[in-house]
Batch of 4 targets.
Target 1
Amino acid sequence: MIKPLVYTYLAMVIVVLVMDFRHLKQAAPINRWLSYGLIGVGIAIWVYVTTLNKTFYVTVWISHMIQRLLPLP
């Protein structure tokens, strides 16, 4: 049941990425590379989360990363 939904979502993501890449060609180089980086990180997190067998919360992972960088009282 869940696999058709995942494949449908993946197809929609690919269409959106193709449309984004067409528009990013007109952006300034720094904006283009920042956008490519964010898209790449987003895809990596999505693939990592969908391949796990257990529940994984991205917000918890991000909070652990941020806690290393921010001073806490």
Target 2
Amino acid sequence: MNMYSCIQKRFFFLLLVQLGFGQTNKEIKKLEELIISAKEQNISIKNQTLQTDLAALTKKTAKGNILNPRIPSTAQVINNFNQQVSFLPGPIFGQPEGTFKAVTMGQQYVSTFSIQPQIDVVNPGTIALLKSATLNEELIKEQNKWNEQTVYNQINNLYFNILLLKKQQQILEENKKTAEQIVTINQNKFKEGLLRKQELNEAESNLIAIDDKLIQLELTLKIQMETLQTYYNQKDVFLLKEDLDHYAKEISLLESKNNIKTKISELQYESTVQDVKVAQWSQLPILTLISSFNWQNQSNITYFDPNSNWVNYNYIGLKLSWDFPTTIQKISTIYAKKIQAEQLKNNAEQAAKENDLMNKQWVLEYEKAIQQFRSLEKIYVLKKDTFEKNKNQYDEQILPLDKLLISHNDLINSELNLASALATIGYTKYRIIIYNN
């Protein structure tokens, strides 16, 4: 039985080692470190990079299609096993007048190789497509930049939520010690018969409430940390080491200069205007340089007859082709694109206004957080002074317990609110910084 117990313990030990293998803790001292890691590891950002590469490839393809070089090549072998018969006048072959002789014309076995290089000298449609591909590449880059900044801002939000939760834990742990001291004092008084049970209950309830808040904070912190890890393709566990108090020392006003949404709307409008040109120019004539190089072997004996001479015939020239814009669909496409362009023009104007409003709003929210922090800092100093004085009066048995507990909870709330204001300062500050880059 002892041997079985020993084996069991070793098994569980090895299991724990396996589960923890490869997982390390990575210290994070500032938000910038998380953003750099996200740029390298985040799947969404990697996919956006691939999308940008795809847009660049489309542009390169459009460049090549301006000349549209092509070399159609064919090789064919033909067996004219039942050839056409012609009737020629008999006298040609020494026969009497009025007679005809049946003659089979042509060769039975014909082998041909053909190469026909072609290149567009002037193709308005492909020229317009190059400009369209260039605008599309710029649009994709701006959209991906906005999406990338959105990912960074989501990480920014999680980062300061986690710092706030850790700070709240620290505040509650410190105040829990005070609550424990109050419980101990009241327990001693109750044992000496100097205190009613109701007052002891209030002191213990206050301590239980703080413990419950700590438990809830721990669970919320775990959820936030797991959510943060989903933005990274790694097993490392992040340990955030920055203290929120750092943001009380570095308060400076910022200007929001983000204009990506305006750029995106403008590029969408320009792309649609270019689509109109593509639809129009694609209906113009195309001038093509054409050529043909052919080699043919003819024989009545076999394919590729070595005793038969190869016949070579070639040409080079220009071809003007024009598909007349007579279909309703082609004409309808142009008008539909013009309507879309007008809609996107209106959207671009509205986006510029909204972008400007967003920048002003972000700056105001940052300034509001700073002002709120300064007010809450003053309130915290007053609440702390009130509690210290009330604690002294309670120790001197001048102040009742309920008054002390009220002032203690007021102190806790003021300190929690102060921490929340610091987190808001950090988040709103870095939101501006992220979208400015």
Target 3
Amino acid sequence: MNLYDLFVKPYEDYTALQIMLETTGTFFGILSVYFSIKKNIWVYPTGIISTLIYVYILFNFGLLGDCMINIYYTAMSIYGWILWAKNSEDNIHVEVSWATKKEWIFASLLFIISLLLVTVIYYYKPYIDNHFSMTGTNLGLYHLDWANWLDVFTTSIFLVGMWFMAKQRIENWVFWIIGDFICMPMMIFKGLGITSVQYLVFTIMAIMGYVNWKKSFKEKKRIKS
């Protein structure tokens, strides 16, 4: 399989609107990560625009299970936006720190709960994708391929990453790095070549974000001492 088959051929049957929407969603997704690196609260409004665009794209592709997960991401972004607004002195930027042991325990529970929740969504996905009709629908996990199982795993990783980000914890970047890297081949498999490139950019930016937040914390600690 060559680059044409991976990144161009899937789009031959797409409309100009679909391509424009995916490109726009990718742009705002990258912009959101940029603002996150800068510890700027605009990470959330730009991120919400991106997830809402993908809600629309996935809904129109009939991928209602994936669509519901992106609604979940949007809700988490609103939660993070509220927390950052409360903890920002200038209403734009926030201070960052490492997570506590108690927060790690909560994050572990969040990961497990998310795994169960997303698995349940995929169990009912045939029913959801059939527009909530049981006619000719068989419930179960039989329809899942390797990309879907990876999606279950990465969704849980991203949820924990989003929670750590909302709490302004440096560890959030570790989860983004792992999840973004895994998502690259998954998106190519789903025929979303532009989005797979987005995740490559996300991986690089997440590494930059980790370095930037860690450096910022060290400088703040040095000034206080």
Target 4
Amino acid sequence: MEAESEPYVRLATLRQLHQVVADLNTARSLSDTVQAVADGIVTGLGYELACVNLVRPDGDLVVAAFAGNTAAEALITGRVGSRGSWERRLSMGERWGALHFIPHHEGWVLTEDDVPQWHTEGPDPRFADEWHPSDRLYAPMYASGGDGELIGVISVDRPRGGRRPGAWGQEALTMYASQAAIAIINARLRSNMQRALVRLEREQQALRASEESFRQAFEYAPSGMAIAEMGGDQHGRLLRTNDALCRLLGRPASAMRRYSFADLVHHEDVGTLLRTSAEGGRAELRLQRRDGTFVWVNLRNSVVADTADGPRFLLTHVEDIEERKRHELHLAHRASHDSLTGLPNSAELRARLSARLCRRPHAVRATAVEALDAAYDNAYDQGLTYDDGTTAYDDGFYGDPMGEGDPAFYDHHVHTVAPQEGVGEGVPGHPDDGTKGLAVLFCDLDGFKSINDRFGHQAGDAVLIEVARRLTTCVRDGDTVARLGGDEFVVLADGLGSADAADLAVRLRNAIIPPIRVDGRAVRVGASFGIGWAECGMTVEEVLQSADQRMYIEKRSRSKVHRRAG
């Protein structure tokens, strides 16, 4: 019977096994733990050589630690054996419980495989349980008992005493392999946790650096920046604003947190703000300063997203574009207004007149109320009937945006109609019949050429400026006074009847007749007015030509005395 069977030997072995297992759990790293596994076999289990092979992520096994022989350690540590070769070895030989023993007379076929090994040749055993140098004993390590995932294999060689381990030695090696597997798994967990903690700390440091960088970029940006809530009852409320935005709007940061951009935007720009998308949206609009004035800004939105909860905050860049807008408006005003008088020029006059006209002639209704009713209520049933027999939803000027022939499309355009010449009550065009239209008053100054010839162009320009001022003061808000060119002016006045237009022409003429002071002298000009009417079916040129012709008729009908000026 082997010496290990003695009770005192078993007790000593258990003490040694307890100590080496304790050493496994005190190792600081995975590499230290694996080396402690190999060293524990030599110091605690009575083997001269021990090797620990660990499964790599690709399935092959690498020699991770060696104990008992420095030369052999240098030879095979780090070398790799394929998973197939290892599975072959673990399927051969004798099964000693969880252990695998391959005697030398079977193991010779393994000398040429790729598993790292240190076995040497030797004489045949002299007795049945004598250890041969080419014997192989493996203790597999599993993640959870014998049925779990293979995490490695312990190889042992040269048991002290030169005998194969008995039942007690086999049990001790099996228990040790089980404890080694637990220690290796725990070491891996600690290693992974340490790496995760290091990575987390680095990420937190990067996040802190990023937040600090963002804070500085936000606070010290030369243009306005704001962070607003997204969603919920407080959607759009400003959470944070930088100094540049506070200076731009003349409001302290504490006061800004009570508002949203919807509270500060100009009422005419509310629709623009609401149509601006949160992600990548841009808008040019006006925001109110603390003193009640408005400033033009360009808003650019982006979403600050939370990976778990989705979009949370709206980051808005606010750029002051007041100077650019002022320049654009100035250029637009110059393009659409007369440089001398400041009145709308010929192009702007034609644009405003064109906006009121369509190319379909409108059938005259008995009353203006009937015309509106037909425009909105009857389009579905009959369509609007024009002089050429077509209807509002016929394919023509308006097109067929809802599908060709689709009766759901009807004409929203309120047609411009003209009072008709006629006499008697109830006849369209009679001053009392209620017909209202867009009057076009064509004005030509009488005697203006003589002022230019006698006093020069500077005096003529002064007269034109004063005439423009007087015409403007005589019309309503919403009416248009435009300079057509030279000494010709045009007034557009909507919602007038024939008598109203005639009265307006008289008021305008009377406003022009009084003397005009130019360079210390008083000069006079007269004015001839022709009243035309804009009507759908007419072109802009036809409307202006009609008013012009009526002006010349009126000019010829008045005596030369009444037209004299200077």
